[in-house]
Amino acid sequence: ESKSLIILLDSENRLPMYVSKIPLIAWDLIAHTYRPTTYIYPTAKNLPKELLPNDGSIAIRIVKNKFCQRLIQELGHPIVSTSANISESYTPQRFFDISPEILNAVDYIVPQEYDDATDLKSSRLIKFIDDYNFVVVRE
Fold first, then answer.
1. The whole model's pTM is what?
2. What whole-number distance in Å separates Cα of residue 119 and Cα of residue 56?
3. What is the pLDDT of residues 36-57, one digit of tens each?
4. Which of 17, 14, 20 shows the shortest CA–CA distance to 128?
């Protein structure tokens, strides 16, 4: 069973709460990341098993959006995220591209004035292999 969920964190300082062993190279990569990047860490902890694939890894993105950071801080825990599309269908690039079927099924839609996205590409996806090695899964 493959899961495509990620968690969003407000700060890299919270990584140790959710990752058992953070690869040494992760800190350098995170410090030099200027576009949305999701990192796949090999060993998750303190997260519901429903979020984790069978290998126990976890995909985490540190958000830069101020609204998202504040929301995560106010909730006191990460937000679970996935793309705003139905499986196997087109991934929307902008809010207006999201299917009405999805929009009508959600509990809340964040007002668009909080959308400060300038990079409309999907996030870069990097998977850590060990302390010093990683693979770029999606550029």
1. 0.81
2. 30
3. 899 999 999 999 888 888 888 9
4. 20
Selection from 21, 82, 11 nearest residue 56 by Cα: 21
Average pLDDT of the segment spanning 103-114: 78
How many CB atoms sit inside 10 A of residue 139's CB? 8
Point out which residues pair with 40 in neighbouring strands: 59, 127
List, as one string, the DSSP characters of the chain.
Answer: -----EEEES-GGGHHHHBSS--HHHHHHHHT--S-EEEEES-B-SS-GGGS-TT--EEEEE---HHHHHHHHHHTS-EEE--SS-TTSPPPSSGGGS-HHHHTT-S----GGG------SPPEEEEE-SSS-EEEEE-
Identify whether the C-beta of residue 43 lies closer than 8 Å to the C-beta of residue 131: no
CA distance 130 to 118: 32
Longest dimension (CA), the chain: 44
